[in-house]
Amino acid sequence: MNTNNNSVHSTELAGRSLDEIVYFSQHKFHGGVHPEEHKTLSNQSNIQALAIPPELIIPLNQHSGRQAMEVVAVGEQVKAGQLIAAAEGDLSANIHASSSGKVIAIEDRPIAHPSGMRDRCIVIATDGCDEAEWLPPIEHPFKADKQQLLRRIQECGIVGMGGASFPSHIKLMPEVNKLVINAAECEPYITCDDRLMREQANTLIAGIQLVMHLLNASEAIIGIEDNKPEAIAELKKTIKDAQTSASDKFAQNTSDLKNSSIKICVVPTKYPSGGEKQLIELITGKQVPSQQLPLALGLVMHNVATIYAIYQAITQGRPLISRIMTITGDAAQLKGNYLTRIGTPISFALQQADAESCDKVIMGGPMMGFEIFDTQAPVIKSSNCLIAAGKGELKATDAALACIRCGECADACPASLLPQQLYWFARSDDLEKAEQYNLFDCIECGACSYVCPSDIPLVQYYRYAKNELVQRAEEKQKAAHARERFEFREYRKKREKAERAERHKKAAEARKKAAHQKGQTDEKKATIADAVARAKARKKSSD
Amino acid sequence: MSSLTAVLILVCLAGVFGALLGYAAIRYRVESDPIVEQIDEILPQTQCGQCGYPGCRPYAEAIANGDDINKCPPGGEAGVKALADLLGRDIKPLDDTLEESQPTVAYIREDECIGCTKCIQACPVDAIVGAPKLMHTVIIDECTGCDLCVAPCPVDCIDMLPLEQDVRQWQWPNPANDTDDDNIIPVRQVS
Ligand code: SF4
Ligand code: SF4
Ligand code: SF4
Ligand code: SF4
């Protein structure tokens, strides 16, 4: 049933040009909220490079999927860009040293994670020389074959930088006709993509062309909120230049690029327009079906920061060792965007931005981010923002009151769920019911918690319920496996017993036979002995 | 003549189909009582024998024959509840003599092991590997934490350790029974 729907969807989109699709789109999605933006705090100045910290702490697992395997030893000298941990399997990403220095430890350190737990990290004492070792650039990327480009992206450890950190090369494997670029940056406070677009529009457009080539896409569309007029203007200008100038660096290498088009779709500012499914609905007017990827509509989406990283990996051979991160919040004196090395301790970044006297530190935005309890934890590939909150800046959550069934949460939910129902199901531990009500479509955007007049930590319940469901399914699988092994062992024991019985029987028979033979020989001996005795006796009597 | 051939062919066919059906009956035999299957599906398959039966399946059979549903500590209260739901019986608290157990795995202190193979014989899921007179070790992923290998070890070198939790297994706490405010990460923060 579902698959049927998809094919209808995808053909619907496939047959039409983006222009047409966008023209007919209503440019809206259900729900959403309008929190205060606080973006001007940090988007007024150019991106600056953050200093090299004395110590880089690089976690081996910075993404969904499996932990990478270290390939350096303590005491080893490393250069910037050198592979220090290799991906384990497909759902894992390579990790590189982000500056030169010496590996001084490979151990558990605090990491930036809502649990506040520790995890395995490679610690590098930097030497300040920042000696680098990039891979060789791919000279003519538009002539290179897809596999070579994908391999490079994988080698460079590129992951989606918008949030979930899914390894990018996997998302680039299929061939699709349309590419959507996520430049919405809808969460309050965060401005790193905004600044990137303003300052690196050229690189970004070239990067988009590259990714279009990779996907064999003929159209790309950039989805951006209308609160970023400077970035929009910059991108528009660059696209126009790229299309007119014959001397464009890449356009001359390939003829089909001239026919390819990059468009901008300006969407109204409303949180969470940057959610993958929400942005696609905003742009195309079509919904990605429940529990499916945009691929179901014949689309692939990438974030601008990821495009930038892919471009650098291919044309410069530069692995993902740094990212642009917003440092903002009332307590930060030097608010702005910083080119930050992966592994930089949060405490060091805060110190550089003169933000040490803050009330609390949030990684990510105020809606979906989490509090950092130990600032020794490092910046990772998905860290887009640090909020150094001043006193009273971020409202503490009040104690939750009872749900008054006002229905505001359902009005706000961008995934068109029934948050109130989900909450009741999660509370009463009726998790199967929650699943039936599409719990797994919840993107944990926090819009429902934001509007809830009773201050119920709704998202918290959904996160708990999702975790619990996944864990129960895993336990079930484990139990099934144990049952199989137990049953096999029972079978084996039975078989062994039967075999043993068989052996015993044979041995017994053999013994019996042997005894029988022995009996016969004994008899013979006895007769002989008898005969001898008789003969002797006869001899005696005759004497 | 021709009628004889027909009869012969029919007899042959009947024989072939009979054999096929007979084979299918054995090969695709419905394993056993479906209610036992369903009960076994709920039991945690730790195979620890704390219920007084030599494994989960025998206990499942016993329950189907009327035994109490509150004898499985690894299944805990949640297990009792699921069984009660399935069988339409009343929920009973876990048997007092038994305690709900935490998930553990066995760990052999390998330098002390004398290689007697006693633990291998005790393990219900073949999670221990080793050869006579050589060091033995536990395959952690297969170990159900049943505790059965500990007692037979003549040199007492097997420990039951709590299953280590790292970031990848970490779970968001349930806000309903989480009184520790620190653990609730506020999401509604923009005033
Ligand atoms: S957190 Fe989930 S339920 Fe709440 S508004 Fe967002 S998508 Fe809807
Ligand atoms: S917004 Fe809050 S109080 Fe209103 S229905 Fe939803 S959960 Fe209940
Ligand atoms: S007590 Fe042990 S053997 Fe008995 S059902 Fe529970 S896990 Fe299985
Ligand atoms: S029972 Fe103890 S000594 Fe014997 S093989 Fe097992 S661990 Fe080693």
From TrEMBL, chain A:
UniProt: [4Fe-4S] cluster 1 binding residues: C403, C406, C409, C452
Gene Ontology CC terms: plasma membrane
Binding site for [4Fe-4S] cluster 2: C413, C442, C445, C448
Listed GO MF terms: 4 iron, 4 sulfur cluster binding; electron transfer activity; metal ion binding
Biased composition (Basic and acidic residues): 496-512
Residues covered by region (Disordered): 494-543
Cofactor note: Binds 2 [4Fe-4S] clusters per subunit.
Keywords: 4Fe-4S, Cell inner membrane, Cell membrane, Electron transport, Iron, Iron-sulfur, Membrane, Metal-binding, Repeat, Translocase, Transport
Cofactor list: [4Fe-4S] cluster
Record-level GO BP terms: electron transport chain
One Pfam entry name: Fer4_7
The 4Fe-4S ferredoxin-type domain, residue ranges: 392-423, 433-462
Topological relation to the membrane, as annotated: Peripheral membrane protein
Family annotation (InterPro entries): 4Fe4S_Fe-S-bd, 4Fe4S_Fe_S_CS, Ion_transpt_RnfC/RsxC, Nuo51_FMN-bd, Nuo51_FMN-bd_sf, RnfC_N
The keyword Transcription regulation is assigned to this record: no
Family: Belongs to the 4Fe4S bacterial-type ferredoxin family. RnfC subfamily.
Protein name as annotated: Ion-translocating oxidoreductase complex subunit C
Gene source species: Pleionea mediterranea
TrEMBL record, chain B:
UniProt-annotated stretches for the region Hydrophobic: 1-25
Catalytic EC class: translocase
Binding note for cofactor: Binds 3 [4Fe-4S] clusters.
Residue span of region Disordered: 172-191
Binding site for [4Fe-4S] cluster 2: C113, C116, C119, C153
Binding positions for [4Fe-4S] cluster 3 per the UniProt entry: C123, C143, C146, C149
Highest taxon of source: Bacteria
GO cellular component, one term: plasma membrane
Protein residues bound to [4Fe-4S] cluster 1: C48, C51, C56, C72
Subcellular location: Cell inner membrane
Annotated protein name in UniProt: Ion-translocating oxidoreductase complex subunit B
Species the sequence originates in: Pleionea mediterranea
Primary gene name: rnfB
